[in-house]
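@channel sequence for tomorrow's demo:
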Amino acid sequence: MAKKRSCNKGLYALFAVAVTCAATAQTALADGEAATTIWTKASEIMKDVYTQILGISTVAGIVTAAVALLLMNFSKSGKTVDESRAWLKRIIITWAILNGLGFIMAWLVPFFDGGTWTG
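structure tokens (generated this afternoon):
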């Protein structure tokens, strides 16, 4: 129970920092280029982080799916086979959701060009 409380406090602190940063957003000038807001920079960072997460999740999904398939095929216990099948289903669903988020965002973003609906 103590772990859950400390985790909640950490998540609250992270949320408070994010809100504070967003509330103090300022325009940043870099190398004489046009003004870049904190939101455009945050968007670039989020895209980079999402790409990294997608790469890691793909490799992790392949490895864990391979382990689940090996357990499913070479196990003599019916319980292990059932658990492996359930884990394989969870892995596939999670990977599809992560990839689907990127597809949905790539499809929706052009409709809101400049912060207004352009559809």
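heads up for whoever presents: The chain has a mean pLDDT of 79.
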